[in-house]
Amino acid sequence: MSSFAGIDSGSWTTKAVVIDAQARVLGSSVVRSGADLAAAAERAYAAALAGCGVARRDVSAMWATGFGRQSVSFADGSRTELDCHGRGAAFYVSGPLVVLDIGGQDAKVIRLDGLGRRLAHRMNRKCAAGTGSFLDEIALRLGIEVQELDRLASGATEELELSSFCTVFAGTELLGLIRAGKKPADLARAAYQSLARRVLAMDVFQERIVATGGVVAHHPTLVRLLSEQLHAPIVIPPHPQEMGAFGAALAARDGTDSVGPDGDERSALAAAKLGGLDAR
Amino acid sequence: MSELKSTGLLRETMGAYYRSLGDAAERKVAPVAWCTSVGPAELLRALGFAVFFPENHSAMLGAARTAQRYMPLAHAQGYSQDICSYLTSDIGAYLAGETPLSDFGLSGTPRADVLVFNTNQCRDVREWFEWYGRTWQVPVVGIRSPRSLEDVTEGDVDAVARQIEALIPPLEAAAGARLDATKLATAVGRSRECSDRWEACLQSAANRPAPLTFFDGTIHMGPAVVLRGAEEACAYYRILQAELEARVRGGQGAVPVESFRLYWEGMPIWGRLRALSTVFAEFKTSVVASTYCNSWIFSDLDPTDPIRSMARASLELFIVRSEGPKERYLEEMIDQYDIDGVIFHDCRTCPNNTNSRYGMPRRLSERLGIPTLVLDGDVNDLRCFSDEQSRTNIEGFIEQIADARAAPRPGGTR
């Protein structure tokens, strides 16, 4: 049986997914990325393979994505996370789509047409607001683990507002609200509202919306608030956190089949390993 | 990527220019005038000034990445991090007592006898020059230009022409010489030839493959910037033009393989020029045209009507125009250069050279069906630029263009 794999080397976590030729997920794993991205990719890949009992030699192709994709030296190809999140989302949900991917370090809006082809994308500016890092900062200020933030927000009773654009200033604003005696639950919800507003200001959301990424997977309050603000449902596909890795596995599967008229361009794009931009 | 053979002559030409500035400022062989990049340089040359363009100096600081060290010194003087990083880099370098011109024998930035601005590009150039005017106690004069023009009217041209004429008495006083009409016509004629030849060089990139890229252009435009109105610039572009024409005849492109052709709208990111040009080349992409390099084309200059044509040329520029003419101009460029996608550089500290902030990328994309990408960065302040995010943005953009060319491919076939 042919199997394919994808690794998403993200800023906080590294994800690996193994699929079969019909794109059924056979195994997956999520590990912390830490400082050694190559080692994290190895760990994630080994765990995903072990979870489904597939031997590494039986994987026909493995492609990498994510900001650390160049560090996955054993990958057969690579695509950007813009491609892989879009590709993965379009597999599950028919378009036209807007894919909203919120990760630890960045937020992306990816527009796809009815055939799943990318029309445009936008990424957050060089700023933590609108990303998972914002929630980490808020949890730190509240003295809790970020995993507890969602549960805390579920007990909110008062609508508060964090108006600052900047994560650091939002933290300061939060301290002011704490001094004013506001409840931690209300502060947690305000943080999610702030994040939602920031993300929704990135683009116009008129088509069907699919949300992916680790923040989406672990913070249902955020998804609910996004949906409320948009007055529209948000589709959460299976394994949203591993969607990039799943998309990379699809690219591995499709890339090996791909011998189109411009197959050389696609292959070159996928295979190119960029050095750092500061490589002068 | 193969370097143009003219690069050696470029270095000689620019080196001789910088040394001539040292002769003027430090050995007093000529009065020194500072001029904004699209200021009335021809008038200054006709009056015998050695003309210094501080924007060129700031670009040198950006390319060398020493700007990062200098900008905080200007910020500490009350010049915000959000204003022009050319200004803060240059003033910071002056405060540090350092300049890359020391490589050409200058002990510092050439001290001005007069500073001449034109606000057709922004207000920052005036603030910049006035800082030096106060520091050195020398006159600061200039043109307060109409901006955001839908059409350039005769009234607009009259207004600027009158201001250019009004500059003559104070500039004659600073130069210690009377303006010679023949010299002015000669300078304008040379500027026009320089402009025409530079335009021909840039237009050679309409060929496939393009013989030069935007990144080459940012370097080879040097003489058009600092030697406008001088014969040396004309001489340089005769050589460069011939080399580019030979490349076109020989089918030699600037990048090894040219599969995609992009347009760059906005300022260069000087500290990442080489790195970015390498990234694009690796992705078989040639950035074949740009608003920035085109901004030194002054087709309205006319030696038979020097002052009025200088006024008109300064107003016809892209940066002086409103969104409508800018969009029409970009549409022409996209067509002329057979562009696959447009990159808008959102230059953090240069709003006037940033055209992505009022919806233009989306409008162009929807109207013309061409992909657009907004890249966050800055001309000199690399704190506003993310290597990782930019790389993903660029790579993803080229993926998108490549995918659009390929057969329709849904996200997966079940």
Keywords:
heterodimer; A: 280 residues; alpha/beta; five-stranded mixed β-sheet; disordered C terminus; B: 414 residues; four-stranded parallel β-sheet; 8 strands; 52% helix
Description of the molecule:
- The complex is a heterodimer of chains A (280) and B (414).
- By secondary structure, chain A is of the alpha/beta class.
- Chain A has helices at 37-52, 81-92, 132-142, 149-153, 167-179, 184-200, 214-218, 220-230, 243-257, 263-271; strands at residues 3-9, 13-20, 25-32, 59-65, 77-78, 97-102, 107-112, 118-123, 208-212, 234-235.
- A 5-stranded mixed sheet of chain A has the order 3-2-1-4-5. In chain A, strands 8-7-6-9-10 form a 5-stranded mixed sheet.
- In chain A, strand 2 (13-20) and strand 3 (25-32) form a beta hairpin.
- In chain A, helix 2 (81-92) packs across helix 9, helix 3 (132-142) runs parallel beside helix 5 and helix 3 (132-142) runs antiparallel to helix 6 (184-200).
- Chain A starts with a strand and ends in a 9-residue tail after the last helix.
- With 414 residues, chain B is an alpha/beta fold.
- In chain B, 52% of the residues lie in helices and 10% in strands.
- Chain B contains 17 helices and 8 strands.
- Chain B has helices at residues 7-27, 41-46, 54-64, 67-75, 85-96, 124-136, 154-175, 181-203, 214-220, 222-226, 231-250, 273-282, 291-294, 306-316, 323-336, 360-368, 387-405, and strands at 32-35, 50-52, 114-118, 140-143, 260-265, 285-290, 341-347, 372-377.
- A 4-stranded parallel sheet of chain B has the order 2-1-3-4, with helices on both faces.
- Chain B is globular.
- The termini of chain B are far apart.
Order of helices and strands of chain B: HEHEHHHEHEHHHHHEHEHHHEHEH
Radius of gyration of chain B: 21 Å
Helix content of chain A: 40-55%
Question: Which runs of chain A of at least 5 residues are low in confidence (pLDDT < 50)?
Answer: 256-280
Task: Give the strand order of the largest sheet of chain B, numbering strands 1, 2, ... along the chain.
Answer: 2-1-3-4
Q: What fraction, in percent, of the residue positions of chain B are helical?
A: 40-55%
Number of distinct helices of chain A: 10
Largest sheet of chain A: 5 strands, mixed
